[in-house]
Specification:
The structure holds two protein chains of two kinds. Chain A is mainly alpha-helical. Chain A is 71% helix and 3% strand. Chain B folds into two domains: 207 residues, no CATH class; 247 residues, Rossmann fold. In chain B, helix 3 runs parallel beside helix 8 and helix 22 crosses helix 23. Classes of the chains: A mainly alpha, B alpha/beta.
Chain lengths: 294, 606
Amino acid sequence: MTEFIQTLILGLLIGGVYALLASGLTLIFGVMRVINIAHGALLILGAFLTYSLWTATGLDPLAAILITSPAMLAFGWVLYVATVGRIRSAPVGASVLLTFGLALVFEGVMGLIWGNTSHSVRPEYFNTSFNIGQVFLPKGQVYGGALAVVVLGGLYAILNYTWLGRAIRASAVNPQGAELVGVNVGAVAALTFAIGVASAGAGGSIVSVLYPFLPGSHYQWIARLLGIIVLGGMGSLPGAALGALALGVAETMTVTYISPAWATAVPYVFVIVVLLLRPQGLMGSKLREDVATA
Amino acid sequence: MTARSGVLRSPWTAVIAAGFLFLLLFPVASDDTYYQNMIMLSMVFAIGAVGLNVITGYAGYVSLGQGAFLGLGAYTAGILSNDVGSNPFVWMPVAGLVGVVVAGFLGVVAMRARGTAFVILTIALLFLVQIIATNWDSLTNGTSGISLPLPSWSVDYQNWPFYYTFMALLGASLLMSWWIRRSKFGMGLIAIREDEDKAATVGVNTPIYKIFGFVASAVFVSMAGAVYGYYIGFTDPSGMFNILLSVQIILSLLLGGRATLWGPVLGAFIVEPLNEISNNEFGGGNARLLIFGGLLALVVLLMPRGIVPTGERWLRALRTRGKAGLVGERLDGRIELQERAPAPAPSEAAAEAGPLLEVKGLEKRFGGLRAVDGSTFAVPEGSITALIGPNGSGKTTVFNLIDGTMTANAGEVWFAGRRIDRLRPWRRAHLGLGRTFQITRLFRQMTVLENVVAPLRSFRLRQLAAGAVSGHEAERAQELLDFVGMRKYRDQPAFELSFGQQKLVELAQLLMLDPKLIMLDEPAGGINPTLLERIGETIRELNSQGKTFLIVEHNMPFVLGLCHPVLVLARGQTIARGTPDEIQEDPKVLDAYLGEDFRLEQPVEA
């Protein structure tokens, strides 16, 4: 029973980190119907930046969020203007292929800069735990999960209580309508993309403490995040949060009760089962397509 | 342009013949194994890309999992030749079968996953297969992989058996791709790419087409995988299911040109040498990532059509420079087949005939909104029935529920004495239900003629193999284009037509189904008065030939002069039914839609 509770709590904590990472991905999809396959590579980039900051200055990796997020925000904006923004009217597949190409380029560049070996960031609390009764919770996991929830809360606050947030949501629901009432949809899209990439940067800082990483880790991360947003319903933020917690718990349960080797398969099984049984996901809605094709 | 002349007489013919001879003779003429190896790998990726072209080029489903079939083939051959015995070549057909089964499964899942969801699915499939190959130790020997037997033939023959098997498989793939493009099957796949929902409403059984498409795309690449595994002598999860193999295949396809016959081959023979250079000159690894990734991004950004289509457009632009297009030409108001006797106005009797279509208590909710809220009405056989009502009253949704584009939350739809509300859209089309869309939805990249022959009145396996535009079907399509006055435009791509012209072509397309009931969604919207008159005449003439109509329209003079009975929809319910005169007097209708001061001076003779 203790083992079960410990597994559950660890699953929820890591689910919180997943939720932050998946939110950026689903937000971008919601506004511009673009699946940013480079999201995984961008989060690994965030982790490497954190690593360099930590080795160079000793800065706590979780505090590094204050630097990685703004840096990745700027990078995301440039990336949008230079690439993704140029093919906004192209068919759906185009943006997937483009961002996939970008992911490979980032992987190659990171390999050249940091090398293709496994890295990890180990602050002094890395090997210590909180002990509550018989439940052991590593401090890194607890701090990381809590921080992810805080950043995610900030993201929700921006979306729900600011003009920018309303503009983003309006652009997601009805771009033409938003344009008509004075929202510059192009600029909002650029900013949304940048915010999504910033969240990947923040998530990358947290991930650097929790898992070892190398440039090629991005495949596994993007697969995991895609599994989450498919499960939650593509474009739905609450869905992404729910899907993230579900995946976090499912993975840790698989590690504990089946085998670590099969845990990596969980997101793929999610994708296939969800698309077979409920393609719109948990919280997604079916869009009315016949009037939107004009 | 027929497919035959496209193959035999294109400017590429000489290049292709030379390329074929070169490939055929190269291993005999030269024993340079470096180049032999490069050509063989180019052929493997060409086989993958030609197959991928069937679903990604023709049907528009982008897949990043094509490399998985290469690995599945290699593993099948490796496991069987080790555990059962005999030469891996013997197991090539079994490898093809394994690919077919997995692709069929993919097709079943893809019944409901479109666009981005499908791409995600293919990535998931690739990684899942990789994990299974890693973890299923007893079968696959895990991460250590499987060694395949050494070639059994004399060294005098070098790699010829591999080489010529790859060449034969490439030839077979190309033959298949060529055949698909000119068959009804390929036409259906292209219709799915252009507009999948629309394809279903004109009778294309989309899931079956997609499943067959996936199977076709996987069969030869899986067989090539078996030979590939034998050739390199070893298969392991990280090498065989490396996503970069899939990237190389899709990059070849994109670079060469999607939906073309030779584009994927050209692309493969460009990308594989680049791959070799990055491996040999720059140490592979990161350089390979930068080259593949950078090229992929650049192709999407700068040359999304690929080399072959871009080249062909360029040639066409050179040839037709200075010639005026046909598109802007004024429609001749007098294009009529023959002097038609004025069709009789729909009689009182028609309006009272038995129902062809009956809708009972139909309901559709979007979240909390009840778009259709218990609507009940009947369309008498042989009538021209109008469905009018304010914007947002649920008219188009009613259409979507009747033709099966959407599923109702409650209620029944009966057509010709048969309950149809659980049938899929193409089944309803086969029964004799046809509709047009408020905003025209032609298959944009197809020609006008191809658009008109695309509809299918039934589904039979045999029909998949039939020529895309052939025989009496083509004649019938010509007649229909004459009927709507669009014959001159038969070879224009649909997207070049004006909105009004598209409406006429969509009508001809619909008539190809020979439907009993024709549902028109705002036929008069955005149409000039001359054209409108012709549409009115056409409707009357078809009606006198026995077609029943259900028309949604806001143009009151048009509706009231043409239709009887008139149904009025408001807030998702049918609030009135009657003759045009009765409707104009009905206080409920005046209140909900027409307005107090509405009075048509005199019904217009449409």
